[in-house]
Amino acid sequence: MRGQPPVVWHRAEGFQVSDAWGNQWIDWSSGVLIANAGHGRTEIADAIAAQAKSHLLTSYCFPNEPRAQLVEKLVSILPEPLKKVFLYSVGSEAVECALKLCRGYGVRNGGRSKHVIVSHDKAFHGRTLGAQQAGGIPELKTWIVNLDPGFVQVPFPDGFRTPDTSFDTFERTLREKGIEPQNVAGVILETYQGGSAAFAPTAYMQALRQWCTGHKALLVCDEIQAGFGRTGKLWGFEHYGIVPDLAVFGKGISGSLPLSAVAGRPDVLDQYPPLSMTSTHSGNPVCCAAALASIDLVLNEGLAEKSRQTGAILHRRLNAMASRFPQLGCIAGKGLMAGVPCIRHGGTEPDGDLAFAVVERALEKGVLMFAPVGFGGATIKICPPLVISEEAMSESLDALEESLGEVCAGGSGGTP
């Protein structure tokens, strides 16, 4: 778990992080996209404390009131047909559940041959066995050795490293891999790719929705990074004008404690009998209390709209920087999510050294980011809490631009 910039977190409030020695940073990490409603919010802390004070700290899969309230809340704000919810602890667990639901539903309705899971290259869905096989990063799968042939990847149409963004690429790739459409149980993709912040074209996603419906395959949107206002809409899939059959949530759901969820069509989530989808910490009452408070903050403070407004400043400035620095590739993202790819020689080859040097220089100027991610470890991710002020956003962008200027002029990484 090493490799992050050297900051020992001591306190975090709103959009700022402090260490024990009085150093303070504007946070562009949100604790890896967790603190959508802001760090250390009193409302969330009080909800956690009140639930802990009640002495109900766990209930296994027995019902508890916060669990029931959270599921009811989620169902009330999700569109049809996402009207049933399973709660879990972490994102990978929720992804594993979605994969199980897809395969189970496919086999039940189409026979044992309908078991193929289609995902996208460059995707990241977690670090457990099924999640990494659904992922699209080959080097993360070498430990698995015996890969399941029922997992196949198609190109993600980001328009940068995959120039062809037509849906024809999806269908052609399946043909080339010998996959019959009627054997596909589910298609899973990140609403935007976590490694780059890239969204697919709307036309592609709408065609994919139609394809899944036509071939009786379940469409799964991994909203673990995208949900709860991050992209300028409450749910990232809203940008596409579609609704998936299953959606997977985590990170920003609670603003603090480990919690994840799978939401979907009742006929899909009801396919297994009682006691067959249990999880030890499912619906933990303390975590659910935190989530209820965090979701209320996102809704009541209009943080999705605030993300859209402040995100407009972010993306305008980043695109201006990309036109100034040839070491930057195509800026991706929406709302308060942005990916800044660092490249060599004006092409698409990643420059991880340059990216990390920029992150380190920005840290010295008071802007905190996690280590670069994505292809070649060369994408700088920008994802501050949604409560960040426009003034702080502008100040931190100034620091990034200064850092780029100094690093690029100094010859660290890419070619000026």
Gist?
The protein is α/β, with parallel strands linked by helices and 416 residues long. The protein has helices spanning 30-33, 42-53, 65-77, 91-110, 129-134, 168-176, 202-214, 266-269, 285-300, 303-324, 352-364, 390-410; strands spanning 11-13, 16-18, 24-27, 84-88, 116-120, 151-154, 184-190, 218-222, 246-249, 260-264, 338-341, 367-368, 379-382. It folds into 2 domains: 11-37 and 302-410, Aspartate Aminotransferase, domain 1, CATH 3.90.1150.10; 44-300, Type I PLP-dependent aspartate aminotransferase-like (Major domain) (Aspartate Aminotransferase, domain 2, 3-Layer(aba) Sandwich).
Notable traits:
416 residues; Aspartate Aminotransferase, domain 1; four-stranded mixed sheet; 13 strands; 37% helix
Structure description:
The protein has helices at residues 30-33, 42-53, 65-77, 91-110, 129-134, 168-176, 202-214, 266-269, 285-300, 303-324, 352-364, 390-410; strands spanning 11-13, 16-18, 24-27, 84-88, 116-120, 151-154, 184-190, 218-222, 246-249, 260-264, 338-341, 367-368, 379-382. With 416 residues, the chain is of the alpha/beta class. It folds into two domains: 11-37 and 302-410, Aspartate Aminotransferase, domain 1, CATH 3.90.1150; 44-300, Aspartate Aminotransferase, domain 2, CATH 3.40.640.10. The longest helix has 22 residues, at 303-324. The radius of gyration is 21 Å and the shape is globular.
CATH superfamily of the largest domain: Type I PLP-dependent aspartate aminotransferase-like (Major domain)
Biggest sheet strand order reads: 4-10-9-8-7-5-6
Fraction of residues in helices? 25-40%
| CATH class group of the largest domain | Alpha Beta
